[in-house]
Amino acid sequence: MTHSGPWLDDDEAEAWLALVSILEVLPAALDAQLLRDADLTFFEFLVLVQLAEAGDEPMRLSDLAAATHTSPPRLSRVIARLEKDGLVTRTADSDDARSRHADLTDAGWQRLETASPGHVDLVREIFVGPLTREQLGQARRIGSRILAVLDPGGSVLAGTRDSTRGRQGLSRLPQRPEVTD
Questions:
Q1: What is the spatial order of strands in the sheet that 88-92 belongs to?
Q2: Is residue 179 part of a domain?
Q3: In 10 A of CB 151, how many CB atoms?
Q4: Which structural domain, as residue segments, surrounds residue 55?
Q5: HSE (side-chain half, CA atoms, 13 Å) at 141
Q6: How much is the pTM?
Q7: How many CA atoms are closer than 13 Å to the CA of 179, on its beta-carbon side?
Q8: Which InterPro entries does this one have (predicted)?
Q9: Which of 44, 64, 92, 112 can pair with 40 through a Cys bridge, CB separation 3.0 to 4.6 Å?
Q10: Crossing angle of the two packed helices 42-53 and 10-38, in degrees rounded to 10
Q11: Is residue 75 part of a domain?
């Protein structure tokens, strides 16, 4: 493949390398806190958040895979571990025997409630705290512009800036759906 455009200048290269550096170290920092506090990886936490966002409706595994931008085999392995730990249940779709659904158990809600305060503390420590309000606004706008290129459909959790999706355990405690008898 031949290079068709200009090379990065020093400012562009430094900005890109700063982002790449964050992407290299951030997953380990998120995993370390969540593993310590709740025996969850960050991805497992995101799966629980997505299931919490679904409320009292079980979520189709294919929709959950799309929402978490992962492959069905990876999601299946993660759901199997979460199910083994008693955090989720899997059920067959009554209309489509090939389709499966996942839902949070009470233990899953409790684990999400356990994980969330430490996660928020870490987000404040590594992201919110070092930035001014103005810089936070810039970070949001920059992230939105990059996501518009990478995910024009806005399916990434963070790409839903005009909704409250993804807020479970972040800007509020996880909210269990009300049980009606």
A1: 59-60, 100-104, 88-92
A2: no
A3: 13
A4: 26-115
A5: 6
A6: 0.85
A7: 4
A8: HTH_MarR-typ (IPR000835), MarR/SlyA-like (IPR039422), WH-like_DNA-bd_sf (IPR036388), WH_DNA-bd_sf (IPR036390)
A9: 44
A10: 80
A11: yes
Position of tokens 């969540």? 34
| Domain contains 109 | yes
Residue 90: both structure tokens together: 């899997």
Residue 157 banded pLDDT, cuts 50, 70, 90: low
Does residue 140 belong to any structural domain of this protein?
no
3-state secondary structure the chain: CCCCCCCCCHHHHHHHHHHHHHHHHHHHHHHHHHHHHHCCCHHHHHHHHHHHHCCCCCEEHHHHHHHCCCCHHHHHHHHHHHHHCCCEEEEECCCCCCCEEEEECHHHHHHHHHHHHHHHHHHHHHHHCCCCHHHHHHHHHHHHHHHHHHCCCCCCHHHCCCCCCCCECCCECCCCCCCCC
Task: Please count the structural domains in the chain.
Answer: 1
Instruction: List C-alpha distances in Å: 126 to 6, 29, 41, 93, 150.
Output: 34, 9, 18, 41, 24
- In the chain, the amino acid numbered 148 is A
Angle at 7 between CA 135 and CA 141, to 5 degrees: 20
Give the closest residue to 88 by CA, choosing from 51, 38, 36, 114: 51
